[in-house]
């Protein structure tokens, strides 16, 4: 099937052909046969690089009205926006910002790219453009099984289908164990394939050799290791060097930020692909220790990528790799989650990660996502994915990852905090005004599809009682309604637990003497909520943070002897302290060195605090009181 056979305007056909897309890949042709260009619902469960984006574009470009493209990550939203914006004659909008805005001007675009959280927020805030949608594409739909993000995605899809009954839905997924179940829930045709434009072989390294699943082998010369050398690291270095020396690019995945930087430093010693100009470019982006380390590694053709980097550095690394200025990226697994950075070889040095209590195996789906990055269309004759093991672990790695299917996608909707959030949202948005009504809305969720015998009204009953005790819902017999506080909590897109914590904090502030209410007070309130990102509290700094909390105890709304659990509250104090010093003029370099956090961590917490302080200010209005410190500190956080 050829592109010029499709129901597309001549200008779009010319655009695709000029980019080398003339004939459809088999999975793309299968999607066309399933009706994706005729308003049909389709679930495409196909490997990375097999043409999912074109399937999405075909659905959106042939839809009889505006289209929405839902992504899980803001970085992916920007990438997809830039891709769609190149389509001739197509107006594209993007929405990843404030969660308390409906942004009705988005309805003026042909395609809108947004995160699932932003779409959920827009629905809560009464966005009129939602009801004009003709097509919705969901990228990475297997994230329905992710705790936190998954319930939001399934409620959003359930609500969209109720708001727009004739809506075309197209869901894109990696290969998972139960795609037919997702397709049945969405009433969609399933397109399932293992076809790839570049063949992929996956294997395990042990004893200077890789045995692949196609029965081929690869000898890898690893220099003898000394007493201070890590054998897995030296094997990874040898595998990366071999790929680069043979003209390929390489992604090396490790378990943590520190390991990503350490492996990049080790590979920099090899001077695999000198790129001094790139090092200079990266050096101009920022002066933190991490930024300087990245620039120095880049001079040798090696980069690293993790959440502790500033967003500008992460984007620069991704772009440099796509432009083939970087030969290697050492990364944590988050890089595999959707961002388009294919390589000839993927090396997975670590297959376990620390969960906070112990080391645990990485899910099969996550490893398959990493492996799927191997093989650059039009550049590589093949792709290779190698898991680094040894004689003792080789057989287990083959069984666990190479020959195993990815896990099934199961709903996480029954999580207590997710239920609180979405029960309040459904009532506050006017979709239901009684227990049975809420249950009826939830009957369209993936959870209800997977659990048809569950009594949804009973499931929701205890949650309603919790929300009533939080003063967010009013219960009158069988009737439910959001209180003023509940409606504002939902509009501000904070969790009910966060809303209740802020409300309690504001009431405590009302009883405090004016001289004790400071910027620290406002920051402690919002940092001690589940919606604030955690900040690592090391043993070496615990005593110092404890002393800081004692010194400023009169400014905090939580008494030290009442903090429960105390460690979590002390961690919140640390975050508040970092943010307070930021508002006082401390630069990122100082904060990174003083508190052992990444520059990206400062950036993300400043952004999160701005949102939560805005929510706190709005809840003050709902309480008919004023705490000017929320607004004042928020203004100081902005650059």
Automatic annotation (TrEMBL):
SUPFAM superfamilies linked to this entry: P-loop containing nucleoside triphosphate hydrolases (SSF52540), Sec63 N-terminal domain-like (SSF158702), Winged helix' DNA-binding domain (SSF46785)
GO BP: any one term: DNA repair
InterPro entries: DEAD/DEAH_box_helicase_dom (IPR011545), Hel308-like_dom4 (IPR048772), Hel308_SKI2-like (IPR050474), Helicase_ATP-bd (IPR014001), Helicase_C-like (IPR001650), Helicase_Hel308 (IPR022965), P-loop_NTPase (IPR027417), WH_DNA-bd_sf (IPR036390)
Keywords, comma-separated and alphabetical: ATP-binding, DNA damage, DNA repair, DNA-binding, Helicase, Hydrolase, Isomerase, Nucleotide-binding
Enzyme class: isomerase
Nucleotide-binding as UniProt keyword: yes
UniProt cross-references to Gene3D superfamilies, sorted A to Z: 1.10.3380.30, P-loop containing nucleotide triphosphate hydrolases
All residue ranges annotated as the Helicase C-terminal domain in the record: 236-427
Catalysed reaction equations from the record: ATP + H2O = ADP + phosphate + H(+); Couples ATP hydrolysis with the unwinding of duplex DNA by translocating in the 3'-5' direction
Binding, ATP: 28
CDD domains, sorted: SF2_C_Ski2
Ranges for domain Helicase ATP-binding: 33-194
GO MF annotations in UniProt: 3'-5' DNA helicase activity; ATP binding; ATP hydrolysis activity; DNA binding
Subunit comment: Monomer.
Biological function: DNA-dependent ATPase and 3'-5' DNA helicase that may be involved in repair of stalled replication forks.
HAMAP family listed in its UniProt record: Helicase_Hel308
Homology family: Belongs to the helicase family. Hel308 subfamily.
PANTHER family: ATP-DEPENDENT DNA HELICASE HEL308, DNA POLYMERASE THETA, PUTATIVE (AFU_ORTHOLOGUE AFUA_1G05260)-RELATED
Name of the featured protein: ATP-dependent DNA helicase Hel308
Name of encoding gene: hel308
């Amino acid at each position: 099937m050829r592109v010029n056979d499709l129901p597309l305007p001549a200008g779009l056909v010319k655009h695709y052909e000029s980019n080398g897309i003339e004939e459809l890949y088999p999975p793309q042709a299968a999607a066309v046969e399933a009706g994706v260009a005729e308003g049909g619902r389709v679930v495409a469960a196909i490997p990375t690089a097999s043409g999912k984006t074109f399937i999405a574009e075909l659905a959106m470009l042939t839809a009889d009205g505006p289209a929405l493209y839902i992504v899980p990550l803001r970085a992916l939203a920007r990438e997809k926006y830039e891709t769609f914006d190149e389509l001739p004659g197509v107006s594209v909008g993007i929405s990843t910002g404030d969660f308390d805005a409906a942004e009705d001007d988005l309805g003026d675009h042909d395609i809108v790219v947004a995160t699932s959280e932003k779409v959920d927020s827009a629905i809560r805030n009464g966005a009129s453009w939602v009801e004009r949608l003709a097509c919705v594409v969901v990228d990475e739909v297997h994230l329905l099984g992710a705790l936190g993000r998954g319930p939001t995605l399934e409620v959003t899809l359930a609500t969209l289908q109720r708001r727009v009954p004739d809506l075309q839905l197209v869901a894109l997924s990696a290969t998972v164990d139960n795609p037919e179940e997702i397709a049945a829930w969405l009433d969609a045709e399933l397109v399932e394939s293992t076809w790839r434009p570049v063949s992929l072989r996956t294997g395990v390294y042990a004893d200077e050799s890789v045995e692949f699943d196609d029965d081929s082998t690869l000898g890898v010369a690893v220099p003898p290791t000394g007493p201070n050398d890590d054998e897995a690291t030296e094997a990874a270095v040898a595998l990366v060097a071999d790929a680069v020396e043979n003209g390929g690019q390489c992604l090396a995945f490790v378990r943590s930020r520190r390991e990503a930087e350490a492996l990049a430093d080790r590979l920099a010693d090899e001077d695999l692909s000198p790129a001094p100009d790139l090092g200079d470019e990266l050096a101009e982006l920022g002066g933190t220790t991490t930024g300087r380390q990245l620039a120095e590694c880049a001079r040798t053709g090696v980069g690293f990528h993790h959440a502790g980097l500033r967003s500008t550095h992460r984007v620069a690394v991704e772009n440099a790799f796509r432009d083939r200025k970087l030969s290697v990226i050492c990364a944590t697994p988050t890089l595999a989650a959707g961002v388009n950075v294919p390589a000839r070889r993927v090396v997975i040095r670590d297959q376990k990660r620390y969960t906070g209590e112990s080391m645990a195996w990485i899910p099969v789906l996550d490893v398959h996502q990493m492996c799927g990055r191997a093989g650059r269309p039009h550049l590589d004759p093949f792709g290779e994915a190698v898991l680094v093991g040894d004689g003792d672990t080789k057989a287990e790695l083959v069984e666990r990852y190479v020959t195993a299917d990815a896990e099934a996608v199961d709903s996480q909707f029954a999580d207590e905090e997710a239920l609180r959030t979405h029960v309040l949202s459904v009532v506050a948005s006017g979709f239901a005004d009684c227990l049975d009504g809420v249950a009826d809305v939830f009957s369209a969720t993936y959870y209800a599809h997977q659990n048809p015998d569950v009594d949804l009204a009973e499931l929701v009953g205890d949650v309603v009682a919790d929300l009533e005790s939080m003063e967010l819902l009013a219960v009158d017999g069988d009737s439910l309604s959001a209180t003023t506080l509940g409606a504002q909590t939902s509009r501000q897109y904070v969790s009910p637990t966060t809303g209740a914590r802020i409300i309690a904090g504001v009431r405590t502030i009302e009883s405090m003497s004016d001289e004790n209410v400071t910027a620290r007070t406002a920051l402690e309130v919002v940092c001690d909520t589940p919606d604030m990102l955690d900040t690592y509290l090391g043993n070496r700094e615990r005593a110092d943070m404890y002393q800081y909390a004692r010194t400023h105890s009169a400014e905090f709304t939580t008494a030290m002897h009442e903090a429960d659990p105390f460690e979590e509250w002390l961690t919140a104090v640390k975050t508040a302290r970092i943010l307070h010093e930021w508002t006082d003029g401390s630069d990122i370099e100082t904060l990174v060195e003083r508190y052992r956090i990444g520059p990206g961590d400062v950036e993300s917490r400043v952004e999160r605090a701005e949102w939560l302080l805005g929510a706190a200010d709005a809840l003050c209005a709902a309480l008919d009181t004023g705490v000017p410190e929320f607004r004042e500190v928020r203004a100081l956080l902005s650059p």
